[in-house]
């Protein structure tokens, strides 16, 4: 019996490894960005904006692609600068884009959510940030309960900026932490002490920014299970409302700055899985609830409440309690979503600037959703958010036969055979212990993915 038990354990480990190591999309949106094309451009987006319902609330995303230094692990497009003039010039273009977009909409659209991402949005000076928020409020009708979130690098954050965020009614801040291990920090070119981070958290709360998120990463060079747990415990001591725990993806052939990372210092697949499990166990023991693939939230946090009621969403920013159908993206490379489909701005800052300076939207590509895309997107979103999906119910809501989608999901049978999912009459449930490979389940419904076994 012992030999049989060990054999099954090894088989399960082998099965899980093939799913963990598969190169799969994160499914923040579906279809994913590689399916975008120039067939959807500025003129198409103008039409979509004009057709937006005047009373439906929208979300806004503003991309600020500047940092003071490069983190070797980072995969986001950003410009390293010590010059504030570069940022001020970009803000002028951003305001022009806001004006151009608002001119296309039926009237000042109601706004329920705003997110500043980057890069490091808080490199915008306090006075300039307040002016930008005022500019947004002049062109959109902010709801009294609007949620405003901003991403922060604690290493460059100031008390003056905390005061400005409070004055601008920012109510959520997301802090990049990644790891508190000094050896890991040196290896990724991001040295940031616990004391520095704690001071920023205290300053934010003192100015009324009461909802705090932390980003952590596992799988970094020289990381161990012990150092991951120590980082998680240090983070928990500051009691953030949410934590996002991402696995580092090493793609130096695509992301040049990752070539600075010593590959031999990276943990292997088994070690990464152990790190992820240890961090999850630490956070759950501290009172956080597991949310989807990689998030954790206190029970009273709006994301945990959205999960509990089945209202949690997944969009280009990740997991969200935001239920808006429309996301308007501003800035270089920003992605937006309207009822008809997705759009993305020019990726490079120079190209983005040229379009806006010429008085036209900077949309470079996008995707027009077909009815089948909407069904697949709904199935994938529920899997990613709830770890389960009632395929027949989703199909019925869209007027489709579920057999067509279940039969085309070629990988489902293998996932069930490997013990990843349970399937009953089209209802798919991912076993809780296998939440880390949920993307492999979602991929079964991706009509564009190369059907090569993981």
UniProtKB/TrEMBL annotation:
[4Fe-4S] cluster binds at residues 67, 71, 74. S-adenosyl-L-methionine 1 binds at residues 61, 118, 151, 335. It catalyses: coproporphyrinogen III + 2 S-adenosyl-L-methionine = protoporphyrinogen IX + 2 5'-deoxyadenosine + 2 L-methionine + 2 CO2. It comes from the Bacteria. Pathway: Porphyrin-containing compound metabolism; protoporphyrin-IX biosynthesis; protoporphyrinogen-IX from coproporphyrinogen-III (AdoMet route): step 1/1. Its main location: cytoplasm. Its cofactor is [4Fe-4S] cluster. Binds 1 [4Fe-4S] cluster. The cluster is coordinated with 3 cysteines and an exchangeable S-adenosyl-L-methionine. One of its GO terms (cellular component) is cytoplasm. InterPro entries: Coprogen_oxidase_HemN, Coproporphyrinogen-III_oxidase, Elp3/MiaA/NifB-like_rSAM, rSAM, rSAM_horseshoe, rSAM_sf. GO terms for molecular function: 4 iron, 4 sulfur cluster binding; coproporphyrinogen dehydrogenase activity; coproporphyrinogen oxidase activity; metal ion binding. It is found in: Cytoplasm. GO terms for biological process: protoporphyrinogen IX biosynthetic process. CDD domains: Radical_SAM. Pfam families: Radical_SAM. Belongs to the anaerobic coproporphyrinogen-III oxidase family. NCBIfam families: hemN. Involved in the heme biosynthesis. Catalyzes the anaerobic oxidative decarboxylation of propionate groups of rings A and B of coproporphyrinogen III to yield the vinyl groups in protoporphyrinogen IX. Monomer. This is Coproporphyrinogen-III oxidase.
């Amino acid at each position: 019996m012992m030999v049989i038990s060990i054999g099954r354990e090894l088989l399960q480990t082998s099965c899980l490894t093939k799913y963990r190591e598969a190169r799969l999309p994160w499914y923040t949106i579906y279809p994913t960005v590689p399916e975008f094309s120039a067939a959807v451009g500025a003129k198409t987006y103008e039409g979509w904006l004009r057709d937006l319902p005047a009373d439906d609330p929208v979300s806004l995303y503003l991309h600020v692609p500047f940092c003071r230094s490069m983190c070797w692990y980072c995969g986001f497009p950003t410009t390293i600068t010590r010059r504030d003039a570069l940022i001020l010039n970009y803000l002028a273009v951003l305001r022009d884009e806001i004006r151009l977009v608002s001119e296309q909409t039926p009237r000042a659209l109601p706004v329920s959510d705003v997110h500043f991402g980057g890069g490091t949005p808080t490199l915008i000076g306090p006075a300039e940030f307040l002016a930008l928020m005022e500019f947004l409020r002049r062109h959109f009708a902010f709801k009294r309960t609007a949620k405003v979130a901003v991403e922060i690098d604690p290493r460059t954050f100031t008390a003056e900026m905390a005061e400005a965020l409070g004055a601008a009614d920012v109510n959520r801040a997301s802090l990049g932490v990644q790891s508190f291990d000094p050896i890991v920090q040196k290896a990724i070119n991001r040295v940031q002490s616990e004391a520095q981070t704690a001071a920023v958290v205290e300053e934010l709360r003192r100015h009324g920014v009461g909802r705090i998120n932390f980003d952590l990463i596992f799988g970094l060079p020289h990381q161990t299970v012990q150092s991951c747990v120590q980082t998680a415990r240090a983070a928990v001591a500051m009691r953030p409302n949410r934590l996002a725990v991402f696995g580092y993806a090493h793609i130096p052939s695509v992301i040049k700055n990752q070539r600075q990372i010593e590959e031999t210092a990276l943990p292997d697949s088994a070690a990464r899985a152990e790190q992820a499990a240890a961090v999850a166990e630490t956070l759950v023991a501290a009172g956080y609830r597991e949310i989807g693939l990689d998030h954790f939230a206190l029970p009273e946090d709006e994301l945990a409440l959205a999960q509990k009621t089945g209202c949690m969403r997944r969009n280009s920013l990740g997991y969200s309690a935001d239920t808006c159908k429309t996301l308007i993206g501003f800035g270089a490379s920003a992605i937006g979503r309207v009822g008809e489909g997705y759009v993305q701005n020019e990726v490079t800052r120079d190209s983005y600037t040229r379009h806006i300076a010429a008085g036209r939207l900077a949309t470079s590509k996008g995707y027009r959703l077909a009815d089948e895309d909407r069904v697949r997107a709904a199935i994938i979103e529920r899997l990613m958010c709830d770890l389960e999906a009632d395929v027949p119910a989703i199909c019925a809501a869209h007027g489709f036969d579920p057999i067509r989608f279940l039969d085309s999901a070629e990988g489902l049978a293998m996932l069930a055979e490997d013990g990843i999912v349970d399937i009953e009459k089209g209802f798919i449930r991912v076993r809780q212990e296998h939440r880390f490979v949920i993307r492999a389940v979602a991929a079964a419904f991706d009509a564009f993915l190369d059907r090569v076994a993981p």
